[in-house]
Amino acid sequence: MSQLKEYSSFKHFLVTSPSEYVAHVEINRPTKLNAFTEEMWVELGRVFAKLSHDSEVRAVVFSGAGDRAFTAGLDVQAASQGATLGHTGEQQDGARQATKLRRNILEFQDCISQIEKCEKPVICVMHGISIGLAIDMSCCADVRICSRDTKFSVKEVDIGMAADIGTLSRLPKIVSSISWVKDVCLSARNFGADEALAAGFVSQVLETKAKAMEAAIKLATVISSKSPVAVQGTKELLNYSRDNTVENSLRYTGIWNGAMLQSDDFKTALLSGLKKTKPRFEKL
């Protein structure tokens, strides 16, 4: 697994390449259970924005360093000492204080949403403690895989707030049962890997973190061998259809493919199928 030099300046994330055209982004704060500070989520947004336009990357695996946690969520101690939770120490009227907090929340949301906005498919691998922000971030991913020891929780109500970084907006669109969503969000209770699989939150449960990583890298390698025009188009169209009507989605698909079917990838893939050869696609 080689380190990607273009990403070596990032302080809180290790970015490596386990196979051709695959990037592995690893949260690197294991001594603090990979809990997030403001500096970390700003950097996360920059990492995924860079990956989105990197022609050397066609699929991304996202995980957490260490054996104990994918992430314990927000570093509440650090947040309570700054402006993240609205405690600036300044005496201001309600409207001005609310404006500052709203801007902070929107910036936080935008950083985490870069995972979803990334043009490349993102496979999230969770293990151990995976609470709070872990759910926000994994909801942004395209595929979720976990190890059997994973302990999930939408934890925000236990710290006196409604989740505001994406879980309440995305989770109901990921799983089919709104009853289950409200169960776990309102109670902040823990749930395990088998329950997450049964609810449709994850698509695979592996016995260990190592096996989950192996499965994720294998899937990412398969995806990265496909036409990047086709793969990135498929992600774009699936995300669009999730948030729009069937009629609008069909129209958007027609416009999208009206341009993208002019790619040589379409011909290359068809001919390789007829000749039973492995196709090679140009970088995108």
Compile the SSE list and pairings.
Blueprint (H helix, E strand, L loop, with lengths): L1 E2 L9 E7 L2 E6 L10 H15 L6 E6 L4 E3 L4 H5 L13 H24 L4 E5 L2 E3 L1 H8 L2 E5 L3 E3 L13 H8 L3 H10 L3 E2 H7 L4 E3 L2 H16 L3 H16 L2 H15 L3 H12 L9
Parallel strand pairs: 3-4, 4-6, 5-7, 6-8, 7-9, 8-11
Antiparallel strand pairs: 1-2, 2-3, 9-10
Helix pairs in contact: 1-3, 3-4, 4-5, 9-10
Contiguous runs where pLDDT drops below 50 for at least 5 residues: none
What class, by secondary structure content? alpha/beta
User: What's the helix-strand series?
Assistant: EEEHEEHHEEHEEHHEHEHHHH
- Based on DSSP secondary structure assignment, what is the total number of beta strands? 11
Q: Mean pLDDT, nearest integer? A: 95
Distance between the termini: 23 Å
Report the sheet-strand fraction. 15-25%
In DSSP terms (H or I, runs of 4 or more residues), the helix count works out at 11
Shape: globular
- Helix content class: 40-55%
Rg on CA atoms, Å:
20 Å
Q: Describe the sheet with the most strands.
A: 7 strands, mixed
Instruction: Please give the order of strands in the largest beta sheet.
Output: 1-2-3-4-6-8-11
